[in-house]
Amino acid sequence: MNNSNPPALPLKSDGSISKIWFADDSQGVELPFFDTKVQAGFPSPAEDHLEQRLDLNTLVIENPSATFFVRVAGESMRDVGITDGDILVVDRSIENWENRVVVAVIDSEFTIKRFTTEQETVILRAENPDYPSIKITPEMDFSVWGVVSWTLKKL
Amino acid sequence: MIALIDCNNFFASCEQVFQPQLAGKPLVVLSNNDGNVIARSSEAKKLGIGMGVLAGSVREFVRNHELQIRSSNYALYGDMSSRIMDILEELLPKIERYSIDEAFADVSGLSRERLVELFRFVRYRVQRHTGIQVSIGVARTKTLAKAANRLAKRHPELAGVCVGTTTESFGKTLEQMETRDVWGIGGKISKKLSGFGIDNAKQLRDADPVWIKKQFSVVLMRTVLELRGESCLKLEEPEESRKSLMCGRSFGKPLKELEDIRPALTHFVQNAVTRLWKYKQATSAITVYLSTNHFRKNITQRSVSASVELEITNNLMQLNAAAQRALEQIFESGFEYHKVGVLLHDFISVKNIPATLFETESSIQASQQLMGAVKKINQKFGRYTVASASVSGSSDWRARSKSRSPAFTTCWNELPLVRA
Asked: Which residue intervals of B178-287 are DSSP H helices?
C-alpha cells in the first residue's frame, strides 16, 4: 500500500496544465491492517469487526502436512456426490476410518470406497447400486491411504 | 542428546507413495539428464544395483527383474521433504534441516525410555501422515547419531529407532564400521587412515586427537572427539541465517550459442530468486559461472565466471538483467558448454534493511507481489507458464527426463488419479 501525495497540477493562467508529475510511489509505507481514520463524528461501527477474508484452505485443510488432493475417475461413489473428475481433499492424519469414505490401496491400485467392518472383516462399500462392494480377504494386499474429507466439484 | 532422522530410500519412497504399483518393486531414480542412479528402493538394492551407476548399465535388470525406472521429480521430493520437516518441527523442540531427507534434532534431558517412546511416535506420525518411512538414531553427538541411525536401518528388530545413550554402547558398532562410513569421512581420508593401520571407526576413535590434527586436519580431530561422545558439531542455524545460495545444473546436451544458454540462466535465476524470497533475504552480489564438461577429455575446456555488484535487491527482473550481463561478459563462442549457474551472495535479511532505503523496500514489495502472482499462475497452469521472457525460446538446455512421474502434489493438472 502506498501513501503518496497527489500529483501536482500547476495550472497556467489560462487554465491549461503545463506539466504533470506522476505519483511518486517509491517511498511506500506499510499501513496497519486496521486503518482507522480520525473523525470528529460517530465512529464506524464496522471498525472493530474488520477481519481477513475467508480463505478456503482454512475450511478444507485441517492438517496441511498430511493433506493431499486426488482426482476421481469413475462413478462408484455417485450417490454420496463423488463423481468422475471431482477433486478430493484427502487427509492422511485421520485415523478413525470406520464408516468414512477412504482412498484405499488394494493389490497396488487406488480406489475410493466407504470403509466398514462386519465381524472383523473389512468391507469397502460402493455408493452406487451398479457397482459391487469389495470384501477384503487376508490374501489381498490392502491398506488405507487416507480419509476423504471434502469433494470439490466444478458445476 | 542429538537425533538424526533420515528418510529411507527417500526419492524411491516418494514415487511409491503416489504410484502404489511401484510398492515392493525394484525401482531406481535417475539424476538430472537421466545420467546415473541416485536412489534405489530396497528391492533394487537387493538386486545389487550400486549407487551412482550409469543408467545404461541397469537395462539388464529391466529385462530380467522388471526393474522400474523414474527420472528425478524434484517438485515432488521437495514438497514431501517440506511436509516431513514441518511434522518434525511440530513434534521436536529444535531441528536442523540437514538435507532434503535428513534432519538433526536436539533432544536433551530425556531418559532412554522416553527417547525411544518419543521417536517411535515421530516415526509413526511421519509414516502415517506422509507415507514415508524414516529411521532414527539418537546419541550424544552428531557423528554417533549417524552411526546409531545406520544401526536402526540394519536391524529390523529395532523398528527404526536406535538410541545409544552411553558412549560405551557403541564399541562393537564402531568396530564393525569402516572409516569411510563415518560421517564426514571420504574415500581419500579413509585410504590415508588405512596407511596408518586405522581401518575401522573404533580404531579412529581411539587414535590420539592431537596426532590426528597434525597428520590430517582439525576437522578430522573433531570427528575423533565426536566418536568419543564429545559434542563438537552443534545444530546449525536455520536457513534465515544463510549467506548465499546457488542454482545451476548441466544441460541436456552441449550448447554452443549464447542465445541457447540465456533461457537456462534465466530459469536458474528464477529458481534462485524464489528461494531468496522464501528465506526472506535480499542480495547485493550475483555471480554467474559457465563451463564445459570436464569429463569429456576430447574437447577444449573452458570454465569462467563473473560477478556483478548491485544495490540490495531481490527483484527478479533486476537480478536476471544483471545475470545476463555477466553471461555476455564471460561467453566466448567456439566451446561446447555443459553447465551454467548462478550464485547469489552477500545476503541481507529483508527485515534488517535500513529504514532509509525506502526505495528498495518498495521495489522489494513490488517484486514480492509479482513473484507471488507468478508462483500462483505456475501452480495453476503448470511450471513455467509464466517466466521471464528469455526463458522461452530454446529449450535445448532442459534436462532429459524421459520417465518423470507427475508433480502429484504441486500442480493441479497432475494430481494422482484414483478410481471410484
From this structure: 187-195, 201-205, 209-215, 218-227, 258-278
B418 and A108: CB-CB below 8 Å?
no
Higher-scoring residue by pLDDT: B241, B7: B7
pLDDT for res B186: 82
**pLDDT per residue over B89-105, tens digit each?**
999 988 888 888 999 99
A145:B358 CB<8 A:
no
Query: Are residues A88 and B83, on separate chains, in Cβ contact within 8 Å?
Result: no
Question: Cβ(B142)–Cβ(B222) under 8 Å?
Answer: no
Task: Note the pTM of the prediction, 2 decimals.
Answer: 0.71
In sequence order, what DSSP letters do the residues of B48-103 get, joined into one string?
A: TPPTT-BGGGGHHHHHHH--EEEE--HHHHHHHHHHHHHHHHHHSS-EEEEETTEE
Active-site residue among A19, A26, A113, A143?
A113
Residues A152 and A92 sit within 8 Å (Cβ to Cβ): no
Hunting for cell 513455467 — which residue is that?
Answer: B384
Mind giving me the DSSP string for B114-145?
A: HHHHHHHHHHHHHHHHHS--EEEEEESSHHHH
Question: From the list A2, A64, A70, which residue is nearest B418 (CB)?
Answer: A70
- Which residues in chain B are contacts of A103 at CB distance < 8 A? 418
Distance CA A73, CA B419 (A): 5
The answer to whether the CB atoms of A25 and B418 lie below 8 A apart is no
Q: What is the pLDDT of residue B392?
A: 53
Confidence grade of residue B168 (pLDDT, cut at 50, 70, 90): confident
Instruction: Quickly state the pLDDT bin for B280 (edges 50, 70, 90).
Output: confident
With beta carbons less than 8 A apart as the criterion, state whether B287 and B342 touch: yes
So what's the pLDDT on residue A44?
66
Q: How many Å apart are CA B286 and CA B307, to the nearest integer?
A: 6
Compute CA distances B406 → A11, A57, B137, whole Å. Answer: 62, 23, 33
Residue B49 pLDDT > 90, yes or no?
yes
Residue labelled with grid coordinates 499501513: A31
Instruction: Answer for the pair B381, B348: CB distance below 8 angstroms, yes or no.
Output: no
Place of cell 531414480: B29
User: Residue A147's beta-bridge partner residues?
Assistant: A91, A102
B114 pLDDT above the threshold of 90? yes
pLDDT at A4: 41
Active site residue A19: no
Q: Cβ(B30)–Cβ(B69) under 8 Å?
A: yes
CA B117, CA B120: separation in Å to the nearest integer? 5
Q: What is the ipTM of this complex?
A: 0.71
Higher-confidence residue of B78 and B145: namely B145
Distance CA A155, CA A121 (A): 37
Mean pLDDT for chain A?
Answer: 80
A113 is an active site residue: yes
What separation in angstroms does the CA of A90 have from each of B14, B126, B410? 17, 16, 15
| Neighboring chain A residues of B81 at a CB cutoff of 8 Å | none
Out of A28, A63, A64, the one facing B358 most closely (by C-beta) is A28
pLDDT of B261 reads 92
What would the mean pLDDT of B301-319 be, rounded to a whole number? 83
